[in-house]
Amino acid sequence: MATANRFPQKDPQLVYDLSKERLNVQLSQIDSLDTKIGNLMGFGSAILAIMVTILTLASTVPLHTMILLFIGIAAYLAMVITLLIAYYAKHWEAGPDLNEAWQHSTQYEIRTMYWWATESLKKCYFGNKNKTARKVRAIKIGLPLLAVETVTLTLGLISSMPLS
Q1: What are the residue ranges spanned by the domains of the chain?
Q2: Are 54 and 156 within 8 A, CB to CB?
Q3: The whole model's pTM is what?
Q4: What tens digit of pLDDT does each residue of 132-150 get?
């Protein structure tokens, strides 16, 4: 904090509360997005594992079934890569640095501290926005890939069944 004079002379409480709440909502959304990413990968892995298990029990696997299986596996791999890249965006800004806040608390009045904390919360919120958007994009890509995987593997399973 270079100088206390750079902040407005108004009461910062409303802006501080809004900034703090907005960052808390954003961090909750990030947790929710990570859960969705994990669920998509889990569903895709389970579907693939079931399909491969069933096909290994078959005495013969027709070529068209193998083609569908490879398409499903390719969709699964594309989904996992897309989701893992988004999932491992892990450096999140979560608010003012506590050591810095402690140091400033001995030098500045409470109004200035609130403005400083508000500014820090705002920077954290906007710093997290791109990473959050990346997670949303990955889910928007991963969901159709899961659908492709599910449909192709299901069709592969159906096509491998004898028609007696």
Answers
A1: 10-159
A2: no
A3: 0.79
A4: 999 999 999 999 999 999 9
